Amino acid sequence: MPQLPPGFSSHSKQVRDIRMHYVRGGSGDPVAIVHGGWDSWWAWRDVATVLADRHEVILPAIRGLAKTTKPESGYEADTIGEDVHELMAALGHERYALVGHDWGAVAVFTAAAQHRDAVTRLAIFDMVMPGVGMMEGAMVPQPGGQYLWHMGFHSVPDIPEMLIAGHLREYMQWFFTSFAAVPDAVGKESLDHYVDLYAQPGAMNAFLKYYRNFWVHGEQVREHQKRPLEIPVLAYGGEVSLGDLTRQCMETLASNVTGGVIPECGHWVAEEQPGFVAQRLIEFLSGS
């Protein structure tokens, strides 16, 4: 594992049917930052270090991802959100803020929707929620392959594992380069770490289950859409990735949304533009 930032430590805790890995550091009002697929807490190391001057920062891995255990089931939006809440409760936090990226954004949204008295603020980075139509529209084929083709491909049983086997590093590197405005932001150290994590037994199967449950995620998100969140929500997308769609999506799910577009940034927001992300989170979490 890459070296932990000063003041941070690595832990795991039993949360329902999983052993949940998390990294923890800092002091102050608690905030959990939840990474997405392909990466780990490491992607948020620079942001977490800045926030730790003001907050206790917890960086968990949701079920099946990174170093959290990989059960056969439970890869649905409401379940992964409940996992996050249960971890925070087990750590003694009755009230806390949440930050999420990619599939981690789905987890923190459903945690907030299911535990409205616990979550104080919610920040979403470069993700649109399944079920509201934006992700589904982005999956429609476009000229030059400029659409989210992998969403459908990863949802097909068995075939992705067979084709990716033996080419995991090249496959992951393609995403870290092609989905970025800063192509070298995810460097060799990071890529080595991520490849090691997702080459572990059961890791690819668990990762793909997030895509194979896409329509279940959508049904659950639409149920929460019937009762929009009232807490402050921050929503940013990368300029060459989802752009303002992240904010527009969250405006269909919450009544108090701010945010916009991260300049010169693709999907990997915390590694491409950590300074921008950290500054926006400092302002948002302080209420300014």
Provide a descriptive summary of the structure in words.
Strands 1-2-4-3-5-6-7-8 form an eight-stranded mixed sheet, sandwiched between helices. Helix 11 (245-251) links the parallel strand 7 and strand 8 (257-262). It starts with 7 loop residues before the first strand and ends with a helix. It has 288 residues and is α/β, with parallel strands linked by helices. The chain contains 13 helices and eight strands. The mean pLDDT is 97.
User: What share of residues is helical?
Assistant: 40-55%
Radius of gyration: 17 Å
Strand percentage? 15-25%
Mean pLDDT figure: 97
Structural class, judged by helices and strands? alpha/beta
The strand order across the widest sheet is: 1-2-4-3-5-6-7-8
- The backbone outline, from C-alpha atoms, is globular
Q: Please identify, by name, the CATH architecture.
A: 3-Layer(aba) Sandwich
Largest sheet, if any?
8 strands, mixed
Q: First CA to last CA: what distance? A: 36 Å
Compute the number of structural domains.
1
- Tell me, what is the CATH class? Alpha Beta
The fourth-level CATH homologous superfamily is Alpha/Beta hydrolase fold, catalytic domain
Unreliable segments of 5+ consecutive residues: none
Provide the CATH topology: Rossmann fold
Give me the strand/helix succession.
EEEHEHEHEHHHHHHHEHEHH
Give me the count of strands. Answer: 8
The helix tally amounts to 13
Say what oligomer this is. single chain
